[in-house]
Every structure is written in structure tokens, then in C-alpha cells.
Amino acid sequence: MKNNKICALKKTTDFAAIIKKHEVFNNVIFKIRARPNCLNQLRFGLAVNKKNFPKAVTRNLIKRQLRQIIQRVQPKSIDMIVIVKSNYINNKYINNAKFFNEVYNLIHF
Are 81 and 9 a contacting pair, CB within 8 Å? Predict the structure, then answer.
């Protein structure tokens, strides 16, 4: 069952717009760059870099897990880029979900 209130950002221009004007919320696992939008939906982009996670299998696993975590949060009217830090791989999925929810709940606009 797909939620229409959440969609992925894929265009470079969307990422650039968020990076240009954003607020940063972070902890030991995640860094979220976010800005409000007027679309009444949550739009997100994922940034999992090759330097921290050299294997494509690992990067794809992290992205799949993050999409699942994001589908379970209460949508806010924001655009955000989720940047994953290298500590992600040292924790279990449940702990990573808790860390994400901590950071996500800090976002207020």
C-alpha cells in the first residue's frame, strides 16, 4: 500500500535547491538537511556515499532500509536529504530506525 503523502526526490535540481536553503539536524548516524515545502507532502532524497560504503550491495541495502523507515514516519510538509554516516553499518535496523526517528522529530517548521 503506497502512501501518496511521501515521495522520493531524484532530480539534481531538487537536491541543489535543498542544499542552497536548508536547516541541518543530525546525530551520530544521520544528518538531515531539510526545508519546508508548500506541497503538503514529505519528499526525501537519500545520500549514501561510496567513501563510507564501498560495496554497492551495502549501499543498496541501506537505501532499502531507509525507504522502509521513512514510509513509517508521520509525513510532514518538508523536503529533506538524508545523509548516512559510516556508523550506520555498526547498528541493527531497529536501532537505526530509532536514531532516524530521533532526528526526524527534531525537524520543526
Answer: yes
11 neighbors 4 (Cβ within 8 angstroms)? no
pLDDT in tens, the chain (109 residues): 455 689 999 999 999 999 999 999 999 999 999 999 999 999 999 999 999 999 999 999 999 999 999 999 999 999 999 999 999 999 999 999 999 999 999 999 8
pTM for the complete prediction?
Answer: 0.91
Taking the C-alpha atoms of residue 53 and residue 85, their distance in angstroms, rounded to an integer, is: 9
Q: Which residues contact 45 (CB under 8 A, 6 or more apart)?
A: 8, 9, 10, 14, 15, 18, 80, 81, 82
Beta-bridge mates of residue 33 = 24, 81
